[in-house]
């Protein structure tokens, strides 16, 4: 494939050198103790820490999502590139065909790459003075266990449908022209939404939502809370709109329905991380496919996935 002409996509050794440059730069760091004092062993790519209290062997994949994998490193890099450059995602079946690996191996790769894309650790609040944050909730796929509304019980909604009662709830926050943060929650009620918005949005931001009463209480905590009335077919009033977060949901749902098709609820948060990552490093923000893949590879350090379920 033409996108894999670069040297680091061709051989295991070239990929290892590329990964070492990405992860360590000019200073090789022991992932066990953080020491910069190590030496190369007789086995290519294996180093030993000189610190007396450590003296452990390590490689560039130690303490990363690639640790203990028997997959060649250039295959890992090809998988990172494909997942980082596919706007709506790439299925494990497609990875299996494109990379010449088994479906089981492709599934293993894809979930660990999603973990690498996850934004771990503490992050600063989104927005600030003059910034617009759009907040909205959506529902996708059936819940693993049926949930009954405390208010409605098992009664249907208008027109006979049952609304979001047994669907997985997702809350997303989008900074206008910037990044997104998405959360899979057990239930999208006012208390849950308030907790997420207050924890992730700077209080001087302008909060834009639809007419949902979920945001009435939390909206009072921000510089302004402006709403758009979708039920009256209003989608923009001046610069008041939720089109950015709706656009994100559109990309997510098209990918989940058209590419992945099946996603167990226990894995939904990683699929959200994947879509968040690509959105936050999109072309409009100055990133190309190669840069996006490199950032995902850097995110692999310090993360592990050890389960072996097939779905």
Overall description:
The protein is about 35% helix and about 15% strand. The strands form two sheets. Strands 6-5-4-7-8 form a five-stranded mixed beta sheet, sandwiched between helices. By secondary structure, it is of the alpha/beta class. The mean pLDDT is about 90. The radius of gyration is 22 Å and the shape is elongated. The protein has helices at about 10-25, 75-85, 90-100, 105-115, 190-200, 215-220, 245-260, 270-280, 290-300; strands spanning about 40, 45-50, 55-60, 130-140, 165-175, 180-185, 205-210, 225-230.
Describe the sheet with the most strands.
5 strands, mixed
Q: Kindly state the number of beta strands.
A: 8
Total number of domains: 2
Q: Give the ordered list of helices and strands.
A: HEEEHHHEEEHEHEHHH
End-to-end separation in angstroms reads 28 Å
CATH architecture of the largest domain: 2-Layer Sandwich
Low-confidence stretches: none
Just give the CATH class of the largest domain: Alpha Beta
Which SSEs are present, and which pair or pack?
Blueprint: H1 12-24, E1 38-40, E2 47-49, E3 57-58, H2 73-85, H3 92-99, H4 103-117, E4 132-142, E5 167-175, E6 180-185, H5 190-200, E7 206-210, H6 216-219, E8 224-228, H7 243-260, H8 268-280, H9 289-298
Parallel strand pairs: 4-7, 7-8
Antiparallel strand pairs: 1-2, 2-3, 4-5, 5-6
Helix pairs in contact: 1-2, 2-4, 2-9, 3-4, 4-8
């Amino acid at each position: 494939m033409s996108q894999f002409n670069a040297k680091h996509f061709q051989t295991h050794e070239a990929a290892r050198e590329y990964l070492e440059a990405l992860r360590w730069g000019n200073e090789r760091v022991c992932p066990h103790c953080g020491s910069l004092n190590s030496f190369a062993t007789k086995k290519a790519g294996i180093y030993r820490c000189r610190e007396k209290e450590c003296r452990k062997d390590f490689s560039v994949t130690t303490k990363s999502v690639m640790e203990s994998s028997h997959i060649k490193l250039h295959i890992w890099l090809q998988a990172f590139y494909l997942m980082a450059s596919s706007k709506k995602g790439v299925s494990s079946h497609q990875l299996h065909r494109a990379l010449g690996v088994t479906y089981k191996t492709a599934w293993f790769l894809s979930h660990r790459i999603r973990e690498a894309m996850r934004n771990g650790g503490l992050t600063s609040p989104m927005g600030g003075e003059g910034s617009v944050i759009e907040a909205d909730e959506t529902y996708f796929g059936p819940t693993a266990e049926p949930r009954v509304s405390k208010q409605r019980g098992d009664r249907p909604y208008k027109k006979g449908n049952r609304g979001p009662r047994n669907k997985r709830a997702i809350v997303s926050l989008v900074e206008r022209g910037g990044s997104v943060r998405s959360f899979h929650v057990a239930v999208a009620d006012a208390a849950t939404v308030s907790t997420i918005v207050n924890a992730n949005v700077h209080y001087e931001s302008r909060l834009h939502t639809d007419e949902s009463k979920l945001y009435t209480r939390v909206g009072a905590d921000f510089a302004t809370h402006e709403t758009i009335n979708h039920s009256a077919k209003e989608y923009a009033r001046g610069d008041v709109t939720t089109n950015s977060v709706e656009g994100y949901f559109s990309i997510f749902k098209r990918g989940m329905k058209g590419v992945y098709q099946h996603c167990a609820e226990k894995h939904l948060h990683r699929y959200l991380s994947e879509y968040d990552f690509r959105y936050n490093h999109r072309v409009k923000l100055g990133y190309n496919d190669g840069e996006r893949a490199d950032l995902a590879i850097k995110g692999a350090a310090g993360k592990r996935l050890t389960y072996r379920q097939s779905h």
